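SAMPLE LOG
Freezer: B-3
Tube label: C17
Construct: single chain, 435 aa
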Amino acid sequence: MKGVTSSTGRTPPALIAVRAAALALALAALAHTLRYGLAEPAHALAFGLLVALGELARRGGAPGEREPAPLAAAGALAYALLGNSAGEPTGHGALQVVAVVVAAQLVAAVRRPAPDVDRVARRVLTVGFAAVCFQPLHNSGQAVRWFGDGACFALFLLALLALTAVCDALLAALAARTRALPYDAGAPPPYDSRTGAPPPYGPFLCEELRALAGIGPAVGASGVVMALGVAVAGLWALPVLCVPLLLTQVSFRRYAAVRTTRRQTIASLARATEIAGYTPPGHAHRVAVLATAVGRELGLTGAQLTVLEHAALMHDIGQLSLLDPVADGATARLPAAEQRRIALLGGAVVRRTGVDPAVAAVVEQQADPYGEQLPAARIVRAVNAYDDLCGESASGPLGALEELRLGTGRDYQPQVVEALARVLGRGGLTRAGAG
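STRUCTURE (predicted):
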């Protein structure tokens, strides 16, 4: 199984705790089910098959893809929120829900190897949370006494679903924060060696909460509808109610394929300047990694980070218009007029690729005073200059940062430079190796 680890191969303690909690819950659920047997085996088999089929049909997991198996997620939630079947009360409990979901994940892993261990842990814990909140209330009769079996009961399920989504976002943000590796690919984990402070958690959590507005509502609503449908019509409702979400999954799969192809095209264009000898190997990748980290530090999320990353990858594409390459590709030392010409040519190339016009706008503004730039352009310019100056400065990264600070009157926004310093401080003040 693949999971999130630091660049040194060590897993952060917080993620170890999450994985340990998921493993303990899974083992307890399996042991309980093996000892006492399955309640309503037909229901367990039906929902287990639904989760397994959803995992087998999952998308490839493109970068930024939050839920690659929506059908499996909806099926697991539906089983956790199932209280009746064809008008008759069910008798399965929270531990059986977790056991069925874990067994389905194991079955799917046989045909789809190397699942993301952190995504599996999230699935186990969030489904366990929903089941623990709902099953005891239903089995004791409290849910019916409090909410009845009409609209109030459906609202109760939706409220529980919202809490489950927040729980999932908390866990996803923890994994995403760890995935934000330090600038230097060979540096220690992204913790300040002096204070032990991890990267800020807030921006990652905000990004995950915003991501809930994507396919998240469709997954959650489908889970609730499945649970209510089975409660009225029995298991025959499952195949009918799965069709809309299955069609949605197919559409998202095609969209993910297009997005992956576009990102590969951008990465290939970014390497063109390196292959032609205009920029040092790995320069575009280093700038993109560090610029994204600085963007997160400044509170950029979602689509803003995507634009920033793509612009950072393609920021030097205009150098292909030069007859003679700049030494080490360091455009920061060129006259302002030449920088402006290269930036405009780069923007024109980007516009012809079919990439988001916002990316071209960022590339075109690379030589403008920071007061006239978009936020993403300010970040790319500062990070690009830092990487260029690191190769020239006799005092290394500290000297490069000091030179950026001297240029904050016109060229570099002070807030961006200070955010860059904080990010580098957590990852080690060093220039990244070839990316």
